[in-house]
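Q&A log
Question type: sequence-to-structure
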Amino acid sequence: MTLIRRRTFATRTALAAAALGLCSGAVFAQAGQTVKIAFIDPLSGPFANVGQNQLKSWQFTAEHFNKKNPAGVKFEFVSFDNKASPQESLNVLKAAIDQGVRYVVQGNGSGAAAAISDAVTKHNERNPGKEVVFINYAAVDPDLTGSKCSYWHFRMDADTSMKMEALTGYMKDQADIKNVYLINQNYAHGQQVSRYFKDTITRKRPDIKIVGDDLHPFGQVKDFAPFVAKIKASGADSIVTGNWGQDLTLLIKAANDAGLKANFYTYYAVTSGVPTAMAAGVAGKVRVVGIGHNALPGLVALQNEYKAKFNDDWYTYQTFNSLAMLSTAMANAKSTDPVKVAAAMSGLKFKGFSGDVEMRKTDHQLQQNMYISEWTKANAKVPYSVENTGFNFQEVRAIPAYVASTPTSCQMKRPS
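Response status: OK
Response body:
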């Protein structure tokens, strides 16, 4: 009897060990593989400073994850300059695919993102076995996860509607806001910032007046003084803008030069060049809606490391969540094959820098916490100095993921 029990126990132990061995072998089957990722964004032209910062941010975050990640893979970035052009994005996308790259990241410009998403979807339909995954880290047109959604497209930033829901949720509680001026770049993102603000603020604070609504050429305005003159004449106490890069830097500079005292409510005051333009000279307050800020515990150590290495600022926090998602999905899929990884990312829940996040399965829009932060003088509590100005962005309100979430119209076509 004892002998039988010993044999049974030994058999079970052997089977368990074998199962564990098979499992371990499968889980780490992709360990040591190098995953090449194409970075497609402007590295020349008026938005080059943003693109160059973000390329460094991806490479920096890859170095962090290459030390340790759930899949045991190595990430390597191959850069392509799309000059902020949708057509050039298609040209360099083809070049990346021809080089065998199967993962693509892009974020600066919803027009470029729409072109890439459509091209990737068509490529995958026509080239089974050579599929490509597109990770959109900053292009926030809601249509990209709505009417134009694609199974192969995954958005890591909050979209325009989510950001506006969070921003207006904060603005409605500010009794000093009476008259708002809208100024935005004249392309999909800027047009939607204007539209979503008018729709949401009317619902939340119908007493607020829209005293101006300008759309200006994208990346072409060299002097915003005429726009600022209109803003001053309108009597606006607040400005809402989705501008980014040079278009926001020059707008802030013109506002400072003219002594404009209105408060700014922005999407991208964190981007390269804007903090230096603000420095201590902004007469009003500048607030930004985003997925992080300089005092967020999950970001402090990495932003300090980035500053020490580059004397620059790491503000594209989506780079962290993107590689966290990719490596977790690759571990779950036990593969780096884009088809298996895409399936693993769809609906994936994982740990991001601000806690638990979820890649919503219905439209591939990441659900995550959001924050309103304010341009504030550095202090003992938050000593970080953005662009060495002595100022930084500090939280004035946190918005949980379920509050920031917005519905989707996506009717996703999934591969059979």
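Response note: Residues 68 and 74 are 9 Å apart (CA to CA).
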